[in-house]
Each structure stands twice: as structure tokens, then as C-alpha cells.
Amino acid sequence: MMPKTKKKHQVYFGVIFIITYNKFLQQNNSAEAYLGTEIVKEKCVSMLEKAVSQGTCRPPSARDNFESLSKLSPVIILNQISRPMFSELPFIHYAGNNVSKI
Predict the structure, then answer these.
(1) Whether this model's pTM surpasses 0.85
(2) Quick one: DSSP state of residue 93?
């Protein structure tokens, strides 16, 4: 699900960006400088939108690794009845076919 797109005047760019932006406009008080900074703002907004969309559609693979860590609990591993199969243990896929790595 894509987040709602905000207009550049609705995006908070952060204190450092705003201070630098205002200082630049004070030093370069011209229409060209203002238009240049507005272009930078638009590019920042699009970059932030792309970063958010990438972060929501591609969750890190480490998340999957930590979901099954409960299978490594001593209570579960040492219990012969509830012990998971070896192939169900987390991080096994990093070893590939080389069991000696484990």
C-alpha cells in the first residue's frame, strides 16, 4: 500500500535543511536561487517518497530470521516431543548443503 503523496509545502525536511535553506536564500536573494531551492525540495520529496515505498514493499530479510528464533529456546530444543525438525531451525539456509558449517 502506497502512502499518500504530500505536496512539498506539507513535508517537514528537518531543522538542518531548513536552516541551510534559509541561510542560502538570505545570501542569494534572487528569483533564480529561489527556483533552484524549490527544485531541490521537489527532488527531496520524490526521494523520500521512493525511500518510503521501498521500505514498505521490501522488508528486510533479517525479519524472517528472527521470527523463528523461538525454536532455538532450550525448552523447545531439549524437549523430544516438541523439538522442531532440523530443516525448520532458523539460519539453516545460510549453510546451504554444507552441514560442516553448522
Answers:
(1) no
(2) G
